[in-house]
């Protein structure tokens, strides 16, 4: 099947030469515009008329040679006719070369175009030399075809430089060019190297949808106004190292098939790289972004290097995809850093980076290692819903505010080293073992999901990495120690807490608290200090013991206590109010608190810490005593007595005080009512038979009587006898002393109560020293 012939060219809009026209094959012929006063173009004019025309030209004359085909001799003759004798260079006024064809080298170097110049649709079949040319007004090269090398180096465009949809088949040299007006290269195709190194763009620049099939070199270029590269295609190396962008720059949707180098570039305006596609290495090392940097949805198939890059305002990488190594080492984010929904397939390196604003990594996926060694966050570091697939170590990081890990997923064993004011792990999923080494932080583990053991440790000294100590100046003035705020909803069977402060920790709603492991020194809230007065009359105080935060909240709620002012530490003299104070419906009641104390008591007992379990047994008994629903009245009465006499068998001093009171009362009763005047004497009586035989005697003893006056009953002798009776009663022995009826019953009561009180005191002491 034969190929259809090319369509016949259409006639131009100007009066044209028509030389060589043939009706069958070329009805138009030569499209060159007629020389004024002639019926042929300059190329087909006879030598006499051509010489006459050229002789009539002077420097600065307007010329119109649209559609004309120039050979090297013909163009040189035209340039010679327009040569300015003072400069020795051609001087054009308005120059119209639209659709012209330059069959051989076109030497316009250092030419001056004082009027508008038009080269739209022209074709340069050989080298085009415009180096050092001076375009005073607009220069139009729209759709121009440069088949060979195009030299514009050192040229000056004082008006617009319009190269839209031009084609450069070989190298295009624009090095050091000064573009004072608008520069338009939209849709331009650079099939070979495009070199704009050191170019100065004073007006707006447009490379929208331009194609760079080889190297695009903009090293050291300066863009004083907005520069647009949306949808541009860079098939080779794109070099913007050291470039200066004073105004906004757009690379949205641009595609970089080769390496892209922006190292040391300066972006004074907004830099938009949204949805840009970097198929090879992207280098932004030591670049500076003075305004917002947009990389939302960008794709980095190769390594992305932002080493020592500075972002003065927001850096937006939302939804960006990093398939290679993403290096942000020593980067400085002075505004917000937004990496929400970003994907890191390989290593993400943020070593020693500084985030001055909020850092957002919501929903970010880290498929490789994430290096945050010695990273500092002056604002919040937010990682909610983030996914860590292969990261084994995070940190050490220092955060002045909150590290948010809520909803994050850790799929492999991991160690976290974090120094921060607050660490939130609400609903965080740990699908393998994890160790959290914290400093200064208040940690919230509410509803965290633990499949393997997770240990939370308070790190005693500043973190180090590679021999360098982490700078904790961001946390100057922060409270030392690690505090756990909540384990609500957590399966505590896999949780290990070491050297943590649990004073405000919420345990309600957690599971398997009896299997919780508490290592080192874990502090709980203490009871209020100082002397208090009930109804402003009766003095009382709280015995020192470890309590749960929920008990504080319940007692503060039932007492009608006012909440502490915002930002002020609670007074140690009062119970601490809860987060839902004073709502009773959202404050745990004694029945729930008793269950919490019971489970924690078992956890201490299973770890062989009997003294530690004692306070939780006390708390359990306290809650049962105050439980008006779950504890029957009779049982509550027993608990009240148990509490009153010995503090549930845990307060030896209370039992000993009651023992001393009981003994004192017994001695007083014995001296006043129990001891007789004297020991009764025995008498024997009987009858001796007259005829002799067996004698029968009857021995009788008088009943003990007390007839002494009251003043004579309280003597040292009677005190000594009473003390012997009491001491024998304490050890559950009978004294053998004759007693009155009152004394007998008093001894019976004392032989029951006083040994019990002594036993309670011994039990309390044993509970504190048992191992």
Automatic annotation (TrEMBL):
Residues 553-591 are annotated as: Disordered. It comes from the Bacteria. Pfam families: Pentapeptide_3. Keywords: Membrane, Transmembrane, Transmembrane helix. InterPro entries: 5peptide_repeat. Residues 580-591 have a biased composition (Basic and acidic residues). This is Metal transporter. The chain crosses the membrane at residues 655-675. Residues 558-569 have a biased composition (Polar residues).
């Amino acid at each position: 099947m034969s190929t259809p012939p090319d369509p016949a060219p259409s006639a131009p809009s100007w009066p044209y030469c028509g030389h060589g026209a043939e009706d069958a094959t070329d009805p138009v012929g030569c499209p060159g515009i007629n020389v004024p006063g002639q019926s042929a173009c300059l190329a087909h004019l006879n030598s006499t008329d051509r010489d006459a025309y050229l002789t009539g030209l002077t420097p600065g004359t307007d010329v119109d040679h649209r559609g004309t085909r120039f050979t090297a001799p013909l163009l040189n003759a035209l340039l010679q006719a327009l040569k300015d004798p003072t400069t020795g260079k051609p001087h054009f006024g308005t120059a119209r070369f639209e659709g012209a064809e330059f069959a051989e080298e076109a030497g316009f170097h250092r030419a001056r175009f004082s009027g508008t110049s038009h080269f739209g649709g022209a074709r340069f079949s050989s080298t085009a030399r415009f180096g050092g040319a001076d375009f005073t007004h607009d220069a139009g090269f729209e759709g121009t075809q440069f088949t060979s090398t195009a030299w514009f180096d050192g040229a000056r465009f004082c008006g617009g430089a319009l190269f839209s949809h031009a084609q450069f088949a070989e190298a295009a040299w624009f090095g050091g060019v000064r573009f004072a007006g608008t520069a338009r290269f939209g849709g331009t195709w650079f099939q070979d190297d495009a070199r704009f190194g050191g170019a100065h763009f004073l007006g707006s620049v447009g490379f929208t949808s331009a194609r760079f099939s080889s190297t695009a070199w903009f090293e050291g270029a300066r863009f004083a106004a907005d520069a647009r590269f949306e949808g541009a295609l860079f098939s080779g190396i794109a070099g913007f190292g050291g470039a200066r962008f004073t105004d906004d720059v757009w690379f949205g949707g641009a595609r970089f098939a080769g390496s892209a180098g922006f190292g040391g570039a300066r972006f004074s305006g907004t830099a938009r790289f949204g949805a840009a596609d970097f198929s090879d290495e992207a280098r932004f090392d030591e670049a500076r972004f003075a305004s917002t940097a947009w990389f939302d949805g960008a794709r980095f198939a190769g390594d992305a290097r932002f080493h020592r890059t500075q972002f003065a305002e927001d850096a937006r990488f939302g939804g960006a995809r990093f398939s290679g190594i993403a290096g942000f080492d020593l980067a400085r984010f002075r505004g917000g850093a937004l990496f929400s929904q970003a994907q890191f397939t390989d290593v993400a390196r943020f070593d020693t980076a500084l985030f001055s604003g909020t850092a957002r990594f919501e929903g970010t996926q880290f498929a490789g290692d994430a290096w945050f060694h010695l990273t500092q966050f002056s604002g919040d570091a937010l990682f909610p819903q983030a996914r860590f697939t292969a990261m084994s170590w995070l940190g050490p990081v220092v955060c002045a505010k909150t590290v948010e890990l809520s909803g994050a997923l850790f799929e492999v064993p991991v160690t976290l080293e974090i120094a921060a004011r607050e660490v939130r792990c609400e609903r965080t999923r740990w699908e393998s073992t994890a160790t959290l080494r914290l400093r200064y932080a208040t940690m919230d583990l509410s509803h965290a999901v633990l499949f393997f053991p997770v240990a939370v440790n308070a790190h005693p000294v500043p973190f180090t990495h590679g021999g360098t100590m982490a700078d904790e100046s961001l946390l100057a003035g922060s409270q030392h120690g690690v505090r756990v705020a909540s384990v609500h909803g957590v399966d505590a069977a896999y949780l290990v807490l070491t050297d943590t402060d649990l004073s405000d920790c919420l345990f309600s709603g957690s599971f398997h608290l009896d299997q919780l492991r508490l290592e080192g020194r874990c502090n709980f809230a203490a009871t209020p200090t100082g002397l208090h007065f009930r109804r402003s009359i009766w003095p009382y105080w709280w015995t020192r013991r470890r309590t749960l935060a929920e008990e504080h909240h319940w007692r503060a709620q039932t007492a009608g206590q006012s909440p502490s002012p915002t930002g002020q530490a609670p007074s140690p003299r009062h119970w601490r109010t809860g987060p839902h104070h004073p709502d009773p419906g959202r404050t745990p009641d004694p029945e729930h608190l008793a269950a919490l104390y019971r489970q924690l008591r078992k956890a201490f007992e299973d770890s062989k810490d009997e003294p530690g379990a004692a306070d939780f047994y006390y708390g359990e008994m306290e809650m049962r005593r105050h439980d008006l629903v779950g504890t029957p009245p009779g049982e509550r009465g027993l608990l009240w007595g148990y509490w009153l006499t010995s503090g549930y068998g845990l307060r030896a001093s209370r039992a000993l005080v009651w023992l001393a009171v009981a003994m004192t009362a017994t001695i007083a009763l014995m001296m006043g009512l129990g001891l007789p005047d004297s020991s009764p004497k025995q008498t024997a009586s009987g009858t001796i038979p007259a005829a002799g035989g067996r004698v029968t005697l009857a021995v009788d003893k008088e009943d003990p009587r007390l007839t002494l006056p009251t003043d004579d009953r309280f003597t040292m002798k009677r005190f000594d006898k009473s003390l012997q009776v009491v001491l024998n009663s304490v050890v559950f022995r009978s004294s053998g002393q004759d007693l009155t009826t009152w004394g007998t019953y008093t001894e019976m009561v004392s032989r029951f109560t006083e040994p019990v009180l002594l036993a309670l005191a011994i039990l309390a002491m044993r509970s504190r020293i048992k191992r």
